[in-house]
């Protein structure tokens, strides 16, 4: 995991120097708020308009796109996978919603490994990202965060966004799933 944290720090530094805000949202954020699990990539939400793909690539020299037409892919799909100079995969996901933008602005500098800090999403935002995912592993990740952070989580914030996602995703189970996790955490 040391190499992944160094890769995260490196890409966040390059993005910051280019004026692009970012936040770690994947397994590296999970290692801060929940429990560490194996991962082979760095997942970042970034605050950048879709039409600025060329600027993004210019801001990340040494990073190789994993698709043929990276600018078009970013514009069309809102995400881009890169291979970092150290060989690590970096997944960049554009902040396409007001929620994503807020999650980036709420990011906190945290120690991911002893002596190694990075900007990660808050525990609340990680729970939201994990619960709106359709992967069962992400729901299990959310449970570990809720279990570990239950006494400090801003439950009204989480529930407020989950209610909005229930409407947007036509999924009326998100709030109740979160409440069940809180109950189980005691």
Low-confidence stretches: none
Q: What shape does the CA trace take?
A: globular
Largest sheet: 5 strands, mixed
- Our estimate of the beta-strand percent is 15-25%
Placed side by side, the strands forming the largest sheet appear as 1-2-5-4-3
The CATH architecture of the largest domain is 2-Layer Sandwich
**Mean pLDDT reading:** 93
CATH fold descriptor of the largest domain? Beta Polymerase, domain 2
Number of strand elements: 7
SSE string, helices as H and strands as E: HEHEHEHEEHEEHHHH
Q: What is the quaternary state of this protein? A: single chain
Q: Count the helices. How many?
A: 9
Integer count of domains = 2
Taking the alpha carbons of the first and last residues, their distance comes to 31 Å
CATH class of the largest domain: Alpha Beta
Could you characterize what this model shows?
The protein is an alpha+beta fold and 186 residues long. It folds into two domains: 1-98 and 107-121, Beta Polymerase, domain 2 (2-Layer Sandwich); 122-186. Helix content is 52%, strand content 18%. The chain has nine helices and seven strands, in the order αβαβαβαββαββαααα. It has helices at 2-17, 27-33, 53-59, 70-77, 98-105, 123-132, 136-149, 155-169, 174-185; strands at 22-24, 41-46, 64-65, 79-83, 89-94, 108-113, 116-120. The strands form two sheets. It has a five-stranded mixed β-sheet with strand order 1-2-5-4-3. Strands 6-7 form a two-stranded antiparallel ribbon. A hairpin with a 2-residue loop joins β6 and β7 (116-120). α6 runs antiparallel to α7. The mean pLDDT is 93.
